[in-house]
C-alpha cells in the first residue's frame, strides 16, 4: 500500500467509527452532607446563612441582587461524590464572597442552575461529573436578614 492509500483508509476508519462521548453523569446530592464535610466546616463562615429553595428564613431587610456561580473542579482520580462535594464547596465559597462584597448576611432561594436550567430543592444540589471534571452551578439572592 502506498501512503495515499493508508491516508484514505485512516480517514475512512475515523469517519465510520462511532464518536466517543464524554461522560456527563448527573447527580442529585445532599446539601447537608456537602456542607458538613471537614473542609466546608472549616471554610464556610457560620455567620452567613445559605438557604435553599423556599426554606423558611427571617425577614429580609435589604436585597442586594441575584447572583450565579458556575464552578468546575478536577475530578480525575476522585469519586464523583468527593469531586461534587468539593466543587459544591467552591460554589458556596463564591456566594459567600459575594455576600461579603455586597454587605449582606445570607443567600436565600438558592437553586442549582446548571446550563441555566433551574433545579429547585431544599435538600439536594445538582452536580455533573465526568472522567476529568465535575461542575456545580448555583443561583441565589444575596440579602440582609433580620438577626
Helix/strand class: alpha+beta
| Unreliable stretches | 6-20
Q: Give the class-level CATH name.
A: Alpha Beta
Instruction: Sketch the major β-sheet.
Output: 6 strands, mixed
Structural domains: how many: 1
Overall 3D form: globular
Instruction: Round the Cα radius of gyration to an integer and report it.
Output: 21 Å
**Any guess at the CATH architecture?**
2-Layer Sandwich
| Portion in strands | 25-35%
Distance between the termini: 80 Å
The CATH superfamily is known as: Hypothetical protein apc22750. Chain B
**Secondary structure tally: strands:** 6
Protein name: Excinuclease ATPase subunit
Signal peptide: 1-22
Keywords: Signal
Q: Your description of this structure?
A:
Strands 1, 2, 3, 4, 5 and 6 form a six-stranded mixed β-sheet that branches. Residues 6-20 have low confidence and may be disordered. This protein is α+β, with helices and mostly antiparallel strands and 147 residues long. It has helices at residues 3-16, 31-35, 38-43, 80-102; strands at residues 25-30, 49-52, 60-74, 106-112, 124-129, 133-145. The protein has four helices and six strands. The longest helix is centred in the middle third of the chain and has 23 residues, at 80-102. The protein is globular and about 45 Å long. The chain is 33% helix and 35% strand. It has a single domain (22-145), classed as 2-Layer Sandwich (Translation Initiation Factor IF3). This is Excinuclease ATPase subunit. Residues 1-22 form the signal peptide. Keywords: Signal.
